[in-house]
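step=predict obj=Acetyl-CoA C-acetyltransferase n=392
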Amino acid sequence: MPEAFIVEAVRTAGGRRNGRLSGWHPVDLAAQVLDALVARTGADPALIDDVIMGCVMQGGEQALNVARNAVLASRLPESVPGTSVDRQCGSSQQALQFAAQAVMSGTQDVVIAAGVESMTRVPMGMTVALAAKAGLGNYMSPAMKARYGNVEFSQFTGAEMIARNYGLEKDALDRYALLSHQRAIAATRAGAFEREIVPVAVRMADGTEPGEMHTADEGIRYEATLESIASVKLIAEGGRCTAATASQICDGASGVMVVNERGLKALGVKPLARIHHLSVLGHDPVIMLEAPIPATQRALQKAGMKIDDIDLFEVNEAFAPVPLAWLQVTGADPERLNVNGGAIALGHPLGASGTKLMTTLVHALGQRGKRYGLQTMCEGGGMANVTIIERL
């Protein structure tokens, strides 16, 4: 069977809500990533068979097939199609897996998997809120309610359930959040992100352009201390999670170019990594965020690997209880997890996070001379994708 290779992986630096990327239309921001992938590989744009793009809030400026719109806003020819994917927070990780499946099947040779989310301009939950305001119903159907009762599908509730179920006290969550910032600070100062970040012009929400380039993740709290993190108000009374131990609202885009052997020859490039395994698993939609645990266990079994065979892990930090519970059950070495910080410090631009994490994983393996990397993330509705790559 043909194999799938990653030949380039890039991302924008994350932007805070109403921050340095907030003036960018998400379509144009995504186009910057598409152009960067082509420029860095030297690929003939006409050889790209498809663009598959993850995006969660597909409304407003991200409506009507944001992937195709990004192609039309880029330097790619009109002959390049595009399609948009919603697997909630795993949307662009699923885009990557769809791209890998396409080239492995031999039906396509060069595919860009990407993701975009402007959480400033298209706020989280906007599509549901607008429908409710217009009296157009709710995503919870009568059959779903009959099956699950009046239980609320809430990621906040799921995070608290995980914290309680795994005995994770607030102090442990606070300490993990601080570690995320510390690792992100160290990685930024060491230049670990320079190769993966596409510089884009700063555009503020009010339309001003100060003439600077955005090249560093805006959400990192360089002044963070355990005391400052611990002082943040609880999300729910009697709970354990706070905004400081949850992923940051973020604007951003990311992308990965995926090819098979024919694609390698056509482009004349060397691969950075090979897709070793890809899978996705559904789990309990009420606790919702626990799915990465059984998904990782099943993925390793299917790949014939053990947890210690993996050199680096990227587990999305939607909330601090998620990676901590994952560590507790899998027995993974915590020194191999999110080594350059995670979404608590760097931000979680929803539909862009899948290929964002993969971009960081690919480059971190190269910088550290390591072989295998595993990426997983919790997703709305109780799902998790797992992708294992081998650095080449």
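step=describe
The mean pLDDT is 97.
step=end
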